[in-house]
TrEMBL record:
Record family assignment: Belongs to the succinate dehydrogenase/fumarate reductase iron-sulfur protein family.
Needed co-factor(s): [2Fe-2S] cluster; [3Fe-4S] cluster; [4Fe-4S] cluster
Protein name stated in the entry: Fumarate reductase
GO molecular function terms noted in the UniProt entry: 2 iron, 2 sulfur cluster binding; 4 iron, 4 sulfur cluster binding; electron transfer activity; metal ion binding; oxidoreductase activity
Domain 2Fe-2S ferredoxin-type as annotated: residue spans: 6-93
Organism in which the protein naturally occurs: Streptomyces katrae
Length: 260
């Protein structure tokens, strides 16, 4: 086994402020950045705060920024860096710091709660649902999400614009709206819930200018922009400019204002 000493710069601090600290840590063959953070805790910085669980790219907890790029620490091999390079590890920039590499991601849980759940079709019990395989596969791609929030962190709409957060759900949750809107069995419309309208008016779909940065950082390889956000935009526009929908809205408005 070969080992070498690598230089790391790690952000240390809390909500009040902090700075980058330099460390030299031993690296072994085959290790990932999370191994190094653990060795740093074990040998030099026992109070370094870091969140992780599975070390297998499945729990979504070890998200951080490595050399400025949002990544999972457990899925980033040390071999991708030059041995002479200083590897800088900082907390996710779009969310408030709790301590060191741990951020408060509750913004994402609030947005998750703002998306109404699947509405089961009337008259069918679970087990009686039937879908085309193509529809199953579309949902399954989105269901691979591990909620690491790297896409949420990287999206420029909120990354440097805290003021946009109330109006923008972010790629992960717009993808959830898209998944439900494209679900052939979702009966939301029958209950008066127009997911296309809520995507625009409540979840800020219009803020997304399809830069695809979210797709680039997704560790599950989900094509967030191409398969969820762009189709959702197309569906929302189709709905807005559909002449039958337009006529229906006018008639509904007129009957609401005419008491006869
Ligand atoms: S494609 Fe849209 S949601 Fe994704 S990073 Fe760009 S602006 Fe944000
Ligand atoms: S869509 Fe991808 S990047 Fe976004 S939270 Fe899910 S797994 Fe993470
Ligand atoms: S520790 Fe679970 S995804 Fe990295």
């Amino acid at each position: 086994m070969t080992t070498y000493d690598a230089r790391f710069r790690v952000w240390r601090g809390d909500a009040e402020g902090g700075d980058l600290r330099d460390f030299t840590v031993e690296v072994h063959d085959g290790e990932v950045v999370l191994d190094i953070v653990h060795r740093l805790q074990a040998t030099q910085a026992p109070d370094l705060a870091v969140r992780w669980n599975c070390k297998a790219g499945k729990c979504g907890s070890c998200s951080a920024e490595i050399n400025g790029r949002p990544r999972l620490m457990c899925m980033t091999r040390m071999s991708v860096f030059d041995r002479t390079e200083t590897v800088t590890i900082t907390p996710l920039r779009a969310f408030p710091v709790v301590r060191d590499l741990v951020t408060d991601v509750s913004f994402n849980y609030e947005k998750a709660r703002s998306v109404p759940a699947f509405v089961p079709p009337a008259g069918l019990a679970p087990g009686e649902y039937r879908m085309q395989q193509v529809d199953v596969e579309r949902s399954q791609e989105f269901r691979k999400c591990i909620e690491c929030f790297l896409c949420q962190d990287t999206c420029h709409v909120v990354r440097d614009h805290e003021e946009n957060k109330p109006a923008f759900a972010g790629p992960r949750f717009l993808m959830r709206v898209a998944e439900l809107d494209m679900h052939p069995l979702d009966a939301a419309e029958e209950t008066g819930l127009d997911r296309k309208r809520t995507a625009q008016e409540e979840h800020g779909l219009g803020y997304c200018n399809i830069t695809k940065c979210c797709t680039e950082v997704c560790p599950e390889g989900i094509k967030i922009t191409d398969n969820a956000l762009i189709p959702l935009k197309e569906r929302a526009v189709d709905r807005k400019y559909d002449p039958l929908v337009w006529l229906g809205t006018r008639i509904r408005r007129r009957s609401a204002s005419d008491p006869r």
